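Course assignment 3, question 2. Fill in each field.
Student: A.L.
Task: Predict the tertiary structure for the chain below.
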Amino acid sequence: MKTAIIVGAGIGGLATAAKLSSKGYKVTIYEKDSKIGGKVNYIDAGNFKFDLTASILMTPHIYQEVFDYAGKDYKNYLKFIELNPIYRAFYSDGTSFDLFSNTSNLTKKLEEISKEDSMGYYKFLSNVYEKYIIAEKFFLNNSFTSSLDFFNFISLQKMLKINTLSSSYNHISKYITSEKLRNLIAFQSLYVGISPFDGPNIYNLIPTISQLYGLWYLEGGMYSYVNALERLIYELGGKIIKNTAVSEIIIEKGTAIGVKSVSGIDRADIIICDADFPYAVKNLIKAERAKGKYTDKKISEMKYTCSTFIMHLGLKKTYPKLLVHNIYIGNDFKENIQSAFIGKLPKHPSLYIYCPSRIDNTMAENGTESINIMVRVPNTLNNNIIWNDSTINLMRERIFNDLSNMEILSDIQENIIYENITTPQDFLERFNSYGGTAFGLSPTLLQTNYFRPHIKSPTVNNLYFVGNSVHPGTGVSIVLLSSKLAVEEILNQ
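Answer field:
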């Protein structure tokens, strides 16, 4: 029986473990934390349950594919609930706007803005949808382990076809005249930790996929997916060792042969690293030759995503006008969005407000509410900000000041009975996320596809990587694709 060791029990590591176990591998996962899931984690506060970070679920078939691959019916593990409307947007002037997945309702709402913007929105969706189909076929599902996989006539032709040179916001502005609608669409590119004003327009595929395929909710929250993967792994004979940090990936004669932890050295035929790639190469791979081009200097010079400040609030009353997914667009939208990318805290933050207890009474007791309020902030690589009590209180004050513009949440502060804060420092210390980023390496044009760290190590045999900072990119569904590609590479070996 072939053996595999996986470093880290994040989503990518768990999915890889399940798939390899289903193919007869003896799989062991080492996880440094007491809880599995990595950043896709949870808080259990008794009367309240919270997803720690991830909450947006697009393309459920990617989540389901792991169970199909293992010969299991996902319906025995998970319950998906389709959302409609997919978002409710609130603006600082007191107005609101619902984005429906239903076309007839959506069209009516868009026409309330203007028929020109209604037509423009559908043209925008059509344009980005074509780019998505190309990206999915030629880029997202290819490993690019060889330069010829990318630098060939077909790939380069398709790259020209999707034309990602303009920014997300400029691309949106070609079709939409309403500033409110532009900002609502642009906000969603923040889900991969880049600025809509600087990042390539390929990330307009996020609002496009959400609109065309819908958004979904998992009963019990996103962490129910982690629980389902854990159950699947155990059923298939896999092993998860918690509270055990790996300190080194052991490499002999150019081949990964095991890992070192406080328990000693454990050997395996295959090593898969689900720790954040920049952290892993810098800290777990000791030999300079094995690092390849990713020297400590190279790691420090690469571009990274922003981070996130999250308030987890248990409230003693319900807020019926909230949906599961809500966006608040604050004043001076561009200036405050850009703050996260130039080392400043936003003065008037735009907010993502996640309220799963609107449809799921397992997340909060009857008559109460469980919500996350998320703001994009700088990562810890910028030394201007120290995440101490003073900084946290400043962010809380700014968030509550802006929430006072939302009539439905104007009393939120006086109804808090539970509060927990997650900062970039938590991403750095708890999850070994390089620079305290929320999404790893930034998916710039020169850090995507062949130019992003590869799933299969080019310098070390039998060593593979999955996660946010490797190809194909960041986000839970995309990390699941990295797992899919890693398993394909391992089985093809």
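Instructor remarks: The longest strand covers residues 307-315. The domain at 3-81+220-301+441-492 is CATH 3.50.50.60 (FAD/NAD(P)-binding domain).
Grade: pending
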